[in-house]
Sequence to fold (80 residues):
Amino acid sequence: MANNKLSLEIGFEDYDRAQSVVTLQTAYAVSGTYSSQWTRVRIPLSQFPQKIDFKKIKHLVFNMEGAGEVYIGDIRLENK
Fold:
């Protein structure tokens, strides 16, 4: 079951509780679509709405709207 959009935001929260998030889009899926199978997703840091100060990051955040399940694994920050 393919899906073009997931109501899922991924981002960072700093110690001031400010969040810098992006909404997951099919453009970030390597295969170009989401499905019920594992899908590799790459989000360029340039897509985040604010400049991120990595010295102030408190944690990674996932905000999901509505009901459903999303499995997340093998999270990495890469300098490419």
